[in-house]
Design brief:
By secondary structure, the chain is mainly alpha-helical. The chain contains 2 helices and no strands. It has helices at 7-32, 38-71.
Length: 74
């Protein structure tokens, strides 16, 4: 089992992995349709989108949590 202190990173990894894959696939289908190169295009777009999404989440979520603490009554 993985230690609980890594939960945020594992959660971020998995969520961004699936979301970037789905969004990349949908955008390729919308813009190009199902072409012979669909899978290659998808994998190429997905890994780039995932890197951006993962590191964005790692840095943005703590900032958003601070904002939420200021505007939400706990």
């Amino acid at each position: 089992m993985i230690d609980k202190r890594y939960e945020f990173y594992i959660f971020s990894f998995l969520v961004t992995m699936f979301m970037s894959f789905i969004i990349s696939a949908i955008l390729i289908i919308i813009n190009l349709g199902f072409t012979n190169e669909f899978l290659l295009l998808l994998l190429n777009a997905w890994w780039k989108a995932w890197i951006v999404a993962f590191f964005s989440v790692i840095f943005i979520i703590p900032f958003i949590r601070k904002i939420m603490k200021k505007i939400i009554k706990y």
